[in-house]
């Protein structure tokens, strides 16, 4: 990186279910104003804005910001499926790094509808046609099961068949998510569950039951990024920096017929490997991570794609408690997508907020001790993977 990028301010609102949501401009405005206060600046200082959302009309980004201010700055609308929020962050970081701007806003929001994700445009080719073809060839198609659950549940089933992973092991991830979310006032689901309750919830696909699938959620989160010089000149917070970041997309291996690769394993691994190489930080150095647990199966598989545990050892990693407090790396202290919720456009920036709080030592009962770096993984099928490494500055 040619110029260090600092995360000067973060803001988010409590996530909620679609039945209790506010309109997206209201959610966005609240998160942006919180981030501005956190950074100690006025909206007039923002030079560019990158605004992410998946379900919404074009220029919803402008509509989301005009309640905060109408300053004439460039507002870029971003849509990269579930990795939308971190894609907005990636673009904002690039603007700082290249010198195009010194103070940039990344915002993500989503006002979702109830029910499983579906394609809204049925009169044109779907971006998931290749994924559907791979899935049909690998495992057939179940018209009664949600599309995303078939992708990720199929990958989980393949993993379990390869390594003998027990259903209870997948369920433990959902139990952990609720245990972490208990201490997060921003999370949707904070009530505790047991392994038996997770397994007894309605079966969805493969090893997945309902409590192992993230819910449709509404919410917003934002981050103010600045250059080091700008922070020093204006007396802004300079305690957390983006040490390394990488974004990747699909390669031919995604469509090779392997369901684990179809859900982005190779994308995530390539992005993580780049981050480790450019930063000089090894997976063993990571003590806290927010990763994309849209389904328990994806969290389990992602442990290995990020190098947090060797290939084929995810079950031992879980059973040994190495994925939670007292273990090697606390994964999703926020409760993750499973319990905090997954408003698609906001997720990447909510992950950013959690990790910045962790590195500031401001996470309260969720605080991970002795964390000097923090890893973020956000993935969207179709596809894009963004891996970001944050560092605490002395």
Structural account:
The mean pLDDT is 96. Helices cover 37% and strands 18% of the residues. The protein is α/β, with parallel strands linked by helices. The two termini are 19 Å apart. The strands form two sheets. The chain has a ten-stranded mixed β-sheet. A two-stranded antiparallel sheet has the order 5-6. 57% of the residues are buried. It contains 14 helices and twelve strands. The chain has helices at residues 24-39, 60-65, 84-97, 129-139, 147-163, 167-181, 195-200, 228-234, 259-262, 265-279, 296-305, 314-319, 336-339, 347-360, and strands at 5-12, 48-52, 75-78, 103-110, 203-205, 208-209, 219-227, 240-248, 288-290, 330-331, 373-380, 384-392.
In short:
With 394 residues, the protein is of the alpha/beta class. Helix content is 37%, strand content 18%.
Please outline the helices and strands.
Blueprint: E1 5-12, H1 24-39, E2 48-52, H2 60-65, E3 75-78, H3 84-97, E4 103-110, H4 129-139, H5 147-163, H6 167-181, H7 195-200, E5 203-205, E6 208-209, E7 219-227, H8 228-234, E8 240-248, H9 259-262, H10 265-279, E9 288-290, H11 296-305, H12 314-319, E10 330-331, H13 336-339, H14 347-360, E11 373-380, E12 384-392
Parallel strand pairs: 2-3, 2-4, 9-10, 9-11
Antiparallel strand pairs: 1-7, 1-8, 4-7, 5-6, 8-12, 11-12
Helix pairs in contact: 3-14, 4-5, 5-11, 6-11, 10-11
């Amino acid at each position: 990186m040619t110029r260090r990028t600092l995360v000067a301010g973060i803001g988010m609102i409590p996530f909620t279910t679609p039945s209790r949501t506010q309109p997206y401009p209201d959610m966005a405005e609240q998160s942006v104003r919180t981030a501005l206060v956190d950074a100690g600046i006025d909206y007039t200082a923002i030079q560019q804005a990158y605004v992410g959302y998946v379900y919404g009309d074009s220029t919803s980004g402008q509509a989301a910001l005009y309640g905060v201010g109408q300053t004439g700055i460039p507002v870029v609308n971003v849509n990269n499926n579930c990795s939308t929020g971190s894609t907005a962050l990636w673009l904002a970081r690039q603007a700082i790094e290249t010198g195009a701007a010194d103070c940039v806003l990344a915002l993500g929001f989503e006002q979702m509808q109830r029910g499983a994700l579906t394609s809204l445009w049925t009169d044109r080719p779907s971006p998931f046609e290749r994924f559907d073809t791979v899935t049909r060839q690998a495992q057939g198609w179940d018209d009664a099961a949600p599309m995303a659950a078939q992708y990720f549940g199929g990958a989980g089933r393949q993993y379990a068949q390869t390594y003998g992973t027990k259903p209870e092991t997948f369920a433990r991830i959902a139990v952990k998510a609720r245990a972490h979310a208990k201490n997060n006032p921003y999370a949707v689901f904070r009530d505790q569950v047991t392994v038996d309750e997770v397994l007894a919830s309605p079966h969805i696909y493969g090893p997945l039951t309902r409590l192992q699938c993230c819910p449709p959620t509404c919410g917003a989160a934002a981050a103010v990024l600045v250059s080091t010089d700008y922070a020093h000149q204006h007396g802004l917070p300079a305690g957390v920096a983006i040490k390394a970041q990488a974004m990747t997309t699909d390669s031919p291996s995604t469509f090779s017929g392997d369901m684990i690769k179809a859900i982005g394993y190779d994308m995530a691994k390539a992005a993580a490997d780049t981050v480790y190489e450019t930063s000089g930080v090894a997976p063993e150095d990571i003590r806290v991570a927010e990763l994309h647990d849209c389904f328990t199966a994806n969290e389990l598989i992602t442990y290995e794609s990020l190098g947090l545990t060797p290939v084929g050892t995810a079950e031992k990693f879980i059973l040994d408690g190495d994925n939670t407090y007292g273990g090697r790396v606390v994964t999703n202290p926020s409760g993750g997508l499973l319990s905090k919720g997954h408003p698609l456009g906001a997720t990447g920036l909510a992950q950013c907020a959690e990790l910045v709080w962790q590195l500031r030592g401001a996470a309260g009962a969720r605080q991970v001790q002795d964390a000097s770096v923090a890893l973020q993984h956000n993935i969207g099928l179709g596809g894009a993977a963004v891996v970001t490494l944050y560092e605490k500055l002395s």
